[in-house]
From TrEMBL:
The keyword Transmembrane applies. The keyword Transmembrane applies. The chain crosses the membrane at residues 25-46, 52-69. This is DUF4133 domain-containing protein. Keywords: Membrane, Transmembrane, Transmembrane helix. Pfam families: DUF4133 (PF13571). It comes from the Bacteria.
């Protein structure tokens, strides 16, 4: 019997990470870049000078990348979803009638 040597895949069930961006933030950045390209096309078709279009879209793109990297580092893979879910939990429950407690 010959011995088989198998390599272990240690990255299985790991979330996707690309240059520091984790999980869903890659999709957010991709969607932002696509929307910025559409905005650039609209501004250019309207007739604004091309340098002004590049300046506006470049500034917006830099802001987008900065904010998405900040959210990725602050919240991590699932933290933003947890923070949004936590905001939807009511602080208190008010009951103005005792009828619900008197049912048998």
């Amino acid at each position: 019997m010959s011995n088989s040597v198998y390599q272990i895949n240690k990255g299985i069930n790991q979330s996707i990470e690309f240059k520091g961006l984790k999980a869903q933030y890659i999709w957010y950045l991709g969607g932002g870049v696509v929307s910025l390209m559409i905005i650039f096309a609209i501004l250019y078709i309207i007739g604004l000078p091309s340098l002004l279009c590049v300046g506006l879209v470049g500034t917006a793109g830099a802001f987008l990348v900065f904010k998405i990297y900040k959210m990725s580092n602050q919240y991590g893979e699932y933290g933003m979803m947890k923070a949004l879910a936590k905001k939807q939990i009511p602080k208190c429950i008010k009951v103005y009638s005792r009828a619900i407690f008197l049912r048998i």
